[in-house]
Amino acid sequence: MDWLRFPPLASLRAFAAFAEKRNVVQAGEALNVSHAAISQQLRALETFLGVALLDRSGKSLTLTADGEHLARAVQLGFGAIGAAVSDLAQSGSERPVHVSLTSSFAASWLMPRLPAFRSEHSDIDLVLDPSPELVELRPGGVDVAIRYGAGGWPGVQSQMLLQTPMVIVAAPGLLGGKTDWTPAELARLPWLEEVGTTEATAWLAEHGAAIEPGAGRTNLPGNLVLEGVRAGQGVTVTVRHFVEGDIRAGRLIELYAEPDDRGYHIVTSQSPQRQAVKTFVAWLKRQAREA
C-alpha cells in the first residue's frame, strides 16, 4: 500500500461517521466533535481525492455516486478494524494475569493477601508461577515478575514494592545460646537454601567463608525454608520482613543484616499493559502501603 497517497485518517473517520448517520450534526456527536469540524474534514477529504463525494445542491448533504462507493469501502474497513479491536480486547480480558515470583515471597507475603484480591476482583484470574529463575516478559507470556534486588534493570519497568534487607537467621536451639557468630563459625552449621538460588553460598563467600564439608546444606522449595529454620534444621538467608514476627517472638535470632536499600520490585515489560494487569499491580502497591 502506498501510504503517501492514503487520505488522512481524521478525514476518513469523519466521512465514515457521516456515511453512517447521513447527518453532520449526528456525525459530530458520534465522534465528539462539532458539526463544523465534520464539514471541514469532509471538504479536506474531497480536496485530497479531487473528487466530489457530497452533493450540496439540496437542503441537506447527500452522497454522490463516488461518495457511496467510498462509503461502502470505509464502512467495511472500519468495521473490520472495530471487530478485530473488540476481539483482541476480549481475549486480553479473559486471559489470566501470569505472575512469576519466588515461592518464598508467594508463601510469606502474597498468599495470605490473595483472599482480599479475590474478594475485590473476582473477575480477574491469576496464574502464580513460583520460580527463582529470571523470566522474559513478553506479550502473551508472563505479565508481572516480583524480584528482589536494587531495581533499575534494563529493558523493563520496575517499581519498589517492599523494601527490606537480607538477614541471616537461625533458631535459638541450633545456636545453643550463642548469638555472636562469625561467618566462618556459621559455615560449620547446616544451611537451608531455596532450590535454584545461591544466596547462602554467595553470602558466605562475600564474607570470606564457605559451607564446610560435612556441615550439611539442604536445598528445598522456598515455602519450606522458613519452616525448616523455625524447626532448628539450619541457618538461612532471607528478607527481614518475612521473619520480623519470629525475631520479635524469639523464635529466630537475627545474626547479620545487609545494610542496603534493596527490596522486592514489581517488574513489567515496557509495552502497554492490559487493564487486568494494571489492576493487579495497583492492588499489590496498595497492599504494600497498608502493610
From TrEMBL:
PANTHER family: HTH-TYPE TRANSCRIPTIONAL REGULATOR, TRANSCRIPTIONAL REGULATOR-RELATED. InterPro entries: LysR-type_TF_proteobact-type (IPR058163), LysR_HTH_N (IPR000847), LysR_subst-bd (IPR005119), WH-like_DNA-bd_sf (IPR036388), WH_DNA-bd_sf (IPR036390). This is LysR family transcriptional regulator. It comes from Ruegeria marisrubri. One of its GO terms (biological process) is DNA-templated transcription. Residues 7-64 form the HTH lysR-type domain. Keywords: DNA-binding, Transcription, Transcription regulation. Belongs to the LysR transcriptional regulatory family.
